[in-house]
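Thread: quick sanity check before group meeting

JM: Hey all, I'm pulling together slides for Thursday and realized we never actually wrote out the predicted structure for the chain we discussed last week. Dropping the sequence here so it's in one place. If anyone has concerns about the input, flag it before I start.
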Amino acid sequence: MRAGTKIVTIGGRVIGGGNPVLIQSMCNTKTENVQATTEQILALEKLGCDIIRVAVPTPEAAEAIREIRKGIHIPLVADIHFDYRLALASIAAGADKIRINPGNIGGEENVRAVAAAAKAAGIPIRVGVNSGSLEKNLVEKYGGVTPEGLVESALDKVRMLENADFDNIVISIKSSNVMLSVKAHEMIRDLTDYPLHVGITEAGTVNMGNIKSSAGIGILLYEGIGDTIRVSLTGDPAEEVRSAKAILRALGLRKGGIEMVSCPTCGRTQIDLIGLAEKTEKMLAEYDDLNIKVAVMGCVVNGPGEAREADLGIAGGKGEGLLFRNGTILRKVPEEGLLDALREELERVRTEAGNAD
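JM (edit): ok, ran it. Output follows.
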């Protein structure tokens, strides 16, 4: 979110120039299946996805973009490898951005053809490199996959587009190694003013991937590096969007939405706090339109006081618990009714917010 980066427009969204960091994800449906892909994108939109990418491995996938675009409301990025004709077809079908590797689409003439088509359509091109696809000559030059090699590779691809008279560019340099990614981004920040799409690639399953992504993306965003982010997970793309939102909120880069805090378990806990917290977190997904903080505490003695900054909360005791709001106890509730009591209060908060509007 560097203020000095170039501004790039993707569909109706703007990145760079100090604009808010946007969340990206990628469909795992077959793009050729218009209905399934459209339905998945619409679901991701509701969760807060700002930009969506789809794979385009076939002419049919490129043509499907035309229909998919009609049914969604966020910018669509076409991901192309090897065949420049798929990039041209995707642009013709209405893609809002193209993701290519200029080094593997068949030479300078093909790069120029894609750049000319994107320029005529007024859409950007994302270029970059992953550590797993770093060119052999750069691996040999630097004695392995290094930040220096990733940066040199990315800037080489940028120059290919610039030589084709194209500068509507977004750069991505990713690695599954957190600190290698961080160092590479710190280097490229000082060498270019193009906006950066950041993430930890091949981060892993939802559990490990979230840990690595939170560490890497968190460091970069704290340093002011990054204009769009993707949390790359082996799992449902919905988890990517939820995690990206959580990272942005934790860093104070995105306001709004519901936030849950819960205390760690200890010897004073006399309820199934872990189970209660998990059920509460799942339920709160239905209330992300509310801009509030909800606490789940395990101790009726200290819980309401420790969570006084929360707008709403529950605190469990032996066989019963407390429902509280803004640190004030509302009532005692039987343990088995805590979740329902919290839901009732959430509905009341939602009604109050609607009346205020």
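AS: nice. The first helix runs from residue 34 to 47. The chain has twelve helices and 15 strands.
JM: adding both to the slides.
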